[in-house]
Amino acid sequence: MLLAIAAAAPAQVWEKLLAPGLTYRSEVDTTQPRMIHALRWTPGARVVQAVPELGLGVIYAEGATRGRETLSVMTQRTGAIAAINADFFPFTGDPLGLMVSARELKSLPYPGRSVFGWGTAASQSAQPVARLTFASDGGGPIPISQFNEACKANSITLNSERAGIAQSATAACVHAVLKVVEGKFHVGTKVTAEVQYLMSDSASIPIAPGNAFLTATGTMMPFIAGLRPGQRVTFDLQVDGIDWSKIDHVIGGGPQLVRNGSVAVDATEQGFDANFTTRRHPRTAVGRTSEGDLWWVTIDGRQKLSDGATLEELARVMQRLGCQDAINLDGGGSTALNVFGQTVSRPSDGRERDIANAVVFLAPAPRVEDVVLTLPAPPSVVAGTTTYLRVFDDKGNPIHNAEVIWSATGSGWIDQGGFLRATGEGTVFISAFSRGKVAAAGIQVTPAPPPKG
After folding, report:
1. CA distances (Å), 97 to each of 162, 208, 246, 275, 341, in order?
2. Where are the beta strands (DSSP E) in 183-259?
């Protein structure tokens, strides 16, 4: 009865504990209309770890997705209990901004754009600046322009094995193939590598485990062409603007949404246009509360039951959730949130997009109970109606809704109260996760009868 009353209200909220320190929150506001899916994570709980993850585990890869992966597949591959999309990216698969995972540098910051970093006891938003150099034979430092991305004109690029493939914008280039002999590509450290051999005029070369590539084009080619096999080079990896004594992980995004508890959208300053800023789109964001908890938020958009949000509206959502600082992440068709393998958000493309990176939440997998779940459902419902669904065990006992994670695809939406809203003619597929298992049902949605008169 309480659920039925809640369903009739203009806005409803459900919160479900996924693991100690990680809660899933769902909001439905039919007046906007707007559907919000969020994770509140307490780093100090230490049961759940939040870690940035690359699509396919590398920056670049051969194949159609070119180093990108759907959030569902990424969740399954890593064994995560939840995941959310992260940074912007071109369709080459390279995260556009800074990415650091367990202090390992994977992508450089985008100039002037916000990033968000966190550790076990602190978090921070910033606009960092990278300084990468290399030196050989006691010579002076030589600047490195790119890291784990294609080498641009008249520049030098360093690719670690995380890049997957060393690439150049032009075939006229030179590569030094290196073997790492000391150190790791961690922020604030130095790495020593030994030159194995040189290669030239190849725009794309796979990187073997334990190797790294220095690539140069145009006017910078003599700095690499002069290296010799057996010679050692030292890399210095510095990223200023972040307190690396407290921060272990960083993802890029932008613009800033909230600063010191106040709405502070600096979209123009960070290079975002009015269409991106003031029109409603699907959105993803991360923010920090005064208690140190982190909110990871998605807002569905471009759909009948969820219009999305402007950046100002997104900032106010983050502020309402108690965030003292928050930044925007990639949105649009990339926006997605996964819980226990269920895509609980509704991607605006009608299916998940292959994305460059995400944040995955790692914890012991939920216990799989010796139970058979059933999801009784009517064979058909009428478009525009609402139907209440429940999950039962094999003894016919209803499972409390707090234990169920609902998701839907096709011609209907389901909220975390178990209320299915049929939106249009077709089939809606319902999935319910509970006790380590999934129950599913397909329901036909028939057209609403024409109005009488």
Report:
1. 15, 25, 20, 21, 27
2. 190-200, 204-206, 211-217, 232-240, 249-252, 256-259
Residues 228 and 255 in one domain: no
Residue 452 within any structural domain of the chain? no
Q: Would you give the DSSP letter of residue 57?
A: G
The dihedral sign for the CA sequence 389, 394, 396, 400: negative
Q: Are 41 and 120 in contact (CB under 8 A)?
A: no
152 contacts 140 by C-beta, under 8 angstroms:
no
Edge-first strand listing for the sheet containing 437-446: 380-382, 437-446, 426-434, 405-410
Q: CB–CB of 117/97 below 8 Å?
A: no
Residue 184 lies inside a defined structural domain of this protein: yes
Nearest to 327 by CA among 363, 375, 359, 371: 359
| Residue 327 in domain | yes
Q: Which residues form the domain of 385? A: 380-446
Coil, strand, or helix at residue 332?
Answer: helix
CA angle 384, 389, 394 (to 5 degrees): 155
Chunked into runs of 10 residues, the chain (453 residues) has average pLDDT values of 40 96 97 96 95 98 94 98 98 95 98 97 97 93 98 98 96 97 97 97 95 98 97 98 98 98 98 98 98 98 96 98 98 98 97 98 94 96 97 96 97 97 96 97 95 76
Query: How many angstroms separate the Cα of 160 from the Cα of each of 124, 137, 149?
Result: 26, 21, 10
The dihedral region occupied by 181, where left means phi > 0, alpha psi between -120 and 50, and beta the remainder, is alpha
- Residue whose pair of structure tokens reads 């009948």 in the numeric block: 304
